[in-house]
Amino acid sequence: MVDVKKLKELLKDEPSYRITQAERAIYKDFVSDWSQVTTLPLPLRERLQSELPLDISAELLISSKKDTLKAVITLKDGFSIESVLMRHADKKRSKTGGGSTSTNKEIYKCTNEDKDKIKQEAVQKFRNTVCESSQIGCPLSCLFCTTGKLEFKRNLTADEIVDQVLFFSRYLKEEGASVNNVVFMGMGEPFLNYDNVMSAVRILNDKNKFNIGARHISISTCGIPERIYDFAKEGLQVNLAISLNAPNDEIRSRLMPINKRYPIGELLKTVKFYIEKTNRRVMFEYVMVQDLNDAPSHAKELARLVKGLLCFVNLIPCNASPYNFLCHKGNWDIVYYKGNRNYQACLTDDKWGVTENVKSVEGRSSSSKNGSIKKSKNFESINLDNLLKPSTRKRISEFKKILSESGITVTERFRFGVDIRGACGELVYRFKKG
Ligand code: SF4
What we know:
By secondary structure, the protein is of the alpha/beta class. The chain has 4 domains: 48 residues, no CATH class; 266 residues, Alpha-Beta Barrel (TIM Barrel); 34 residues, no CATH class; 63 residues, no CATH class. The protein is 35% helix and 19% strand. It is built from 15 helices and 17 strands. The strands form 4 sheets. The chain has a 10-stranded mixed β-sheet. A 3-stranded antiparallel β-sheet has the order 12-13-14, with no helix packed on it. A two-stranded antiparallel ribbon has the order 5-6. Helix 5 packs antiparallel against helix 6 and helix 7 runs parallel beside helix 8. The longest helix is centred in the middle third of the chain and has 16 residues. It is elongated and about 70 Å long. Iron/sulfur cluster binds next to loops.
C-alpha cells in the first residue's frame, strides 16, 4: 500500500525534488517496486523498498467476457474491500479503428512495428472505468445492496481509495492502457467519508499524478444533504449521481432506510441547490426491482418528480443476489440472509427481530445450505422464491418509454461481471463467509 504520509516522513531530509520524483514513479509510472525507480539513488531505493514497499495485496477475478475485473484488496489491518474495472467499448474511438476482423487481417499483413501499433489502437478502443469503494462495509443498509449486509467497520483513508485506481493502473500499464474514468459506486457511502473521498479525488485529478479529468470522475450518493451542499461549493467539475430508486417516500424508505432521515423532498431541495450553483447535470440512479418500483404508475410519478431539473435518469436492473431476500405477507416485511447460520427479519415498524426457528432449508440453495430460517411474527412462512428480483426487459422498456415521453432523458446501465458476482459487496461478503 502507498502511504504518502510515511513517504514524506522518509524523504524529509532529502532534497525537495525527491518527493516529486517518488510521487511521479508511483502515480505516473505506476511502479510497484522501488528498484524500478532509477531516478532515485540506489541506497534510497533500497531504504524505501524495505520501509515502504509498494505492493497492493489483492485477489483478482476476471469475467468470462473479459470486460470486468474485480479485485478484492486486503488492507493493512486485514479488512477487505472490492474494486472493479469495467471495460467499455469506446464507440467514438471504434469508429476510426474498424471492426475486429479487419484489424486481425491487418495484423497478419503488417510488420511487427505495425502490429504493435494496431494492438495499441485496439486497446485505446476501450474506456476503462474503475468503480471505487469508500468505506469498509456500509452503515446505510440499502435493501438491494450486499455491502449493506456487511457490518460497517471504518472509513477508507484517501491513500486506500487511491490505491484501488493504482492497482488497476498497474494492470492496464502492461497493455499500454490506462484508467479513463472513476466512479465512486463501490462499497460504502462516499459522502459519509467526505474529506478522504475529496482528497482522493484531488490526487486522481492532479495533472502531475493520475491526471484523470474531473468530468471523468463521478460520485454516487444516497443523498446526505449537508455534504451535497459542501460538494456544490467545491468548484469541481466532478459528476454527481443520486441513488434515488423510488418515486415516493413510501417505497424509498423501504428500499433505503436513510430516506427516513432525509426524505425525497429534502434531498431534491439540495439537488436543486447543487444544480443552480454548478449548472451541472445530475444523474438519478434508479435500481429497478420487480413488482416494487417498476410499474408504469411509478414511472409517471418519477417523471413528475424530476421534471424541470437539469438531470437524467439511469435505470439499473436490480442485482439478484442470493443474499437479498424479500418476503412479504400483505405488508413489507423483509428477510435477508445474514451470516452463515441464520436469517434476520426487518419489520416495517423498524424494529429488528428474529423470533422462532421455522425450518431447515438444506438443499434449497448453496447459500442457505446448513442454515436455518427464522421468522418474524409478522408473517407465516418464508418463500425463498421471493428473492429480490430484477425487473424484466419488458418492464424496463415500458418504464423507459414513459420517462422519455415525459421529456426525461433516460439511459440504462449495462450489467458487468455477473459471473464473478460483480455487484458491490458480494465478493467480500462471500469471502467473509468462507
Ligand atoms: S447502496 Fe451504497 S449506501 Fe446503500 S448500503 Fe450499499 S454501499 Fe451503502
